[in-house]
Write a structure and sequence with these properties.
Blueprint lengths: L11 H45 L9 E4 L4 E2 L2 E2 L1 H15 L6 E4 L10 H11 L7 E4 L5 H14 L4 E5 L5 H10 L3 E4 L11 H21 L13
Parallel strand pairs: 1-4, 1-6, 4-5, 6-7
Antiparallel strand pairs: 2-3
Helix pairs in contact: 1-6
């Protein structure tokens, strides 16, 4: 009598182990990649914040072709407290001989009678700086457009170097943009005004400028729509 070999039934548990093992390995690697990306992002964020803080502490009074004051809000020709602090710093730099030319920059909002640049020029001339020593560049609705307008105006006049005046936390971004626009630029920020009054405003300024700088470096667009407690 011929006996057929006994058939063995496949072990479904053994067959299912391989797919489950591959899936688990993929999930482990995906988790590691996500963790690595998050860690890298945190390092980049923290590193940028530290750099914003470091540059905010720099006051470079090296003589330049021009002192450039970044615009901020003005009300019927009267600078806001943020803008006034920047203008006062520019006045001090002019009196110390850092440059014989001050450039104010900034356009105006709908309904305004004055541009930020014109308001700034009036403040400086009222403070005793000769009118022909102040150039008002009356365009620019954000930092990037303002810096580009100043760079164009300076190049037309054969000027190359600028000391930038803004809030401390704004220094790194304005310097980065100015250098990208072809200027030899450094910073001497104001040490007064709402941007530096409290620890809260300082922390908020650093956080805002960290995000704005990363956005600019990623897209080369301005990020001045981000809210800012000190105002423009």
């Amino acid at each position: 009598m011929n006996w057929a070999p006994a058939r063995t039934r496949p072990d479904s548990r053994t067959d299912s182990r391989a797919p489950r093992g591959i899936g688990a390995a993929i999930l482990r690697w995906a988790g590691r990649l996500i963790s690595g990306a998050v860690a890298l992002g945190l390092v980049l964020l923290l590193g940028t914040a530290v750099r914003v803080w470091q540059v905010a502490r720099i006051e470079d009074y090296t003589p330049a072709d021009a002192i450039v004051v970044l615009g901020a809000a003005q009300y019927s020709g009267t600078p806001s407290s943020v803008f006034e602090a920047r203008l006062y710093q520019a006045e001090q730099l002019y009196e110390q001989g850092v440059s014989d030319l001050v450039i104010t920059v900034g356009g105006k909002q709908e309904g305004d009678l004055y541009t930020e640049a014109a308001s700034g020029k009036m403040y400086l001339t009222d403070a005793g700086i000769p009118a022909d020593a102040v150039l008002a560049v009356e365009t620019g609705s954000d930092t990037l457009r303002s810096v580009e307008a100043v760079a164009a105006a300076m190049k037309e006049r054969g000027l190359e170097s600028a000391v930038l005046v803004s809030d401390p936390w704004h220094s790194l971004r304005t310097r980065t943009m100015a250098r990208d626009a072809g200027l030899d630029a450094w910073t001497a920020p104001t040490r007064t005004g709402p941007a530096v009054y409290t620890r809260e405003s300082q922390a908020h300024g650093i956080a805002r400028e960290t995000a704005a700088l990363l956005w600019y470096q990623l897209t080369h667009f301005s990020a001045d729509d981000f809210s800012y407690t000190a105002g423009r």
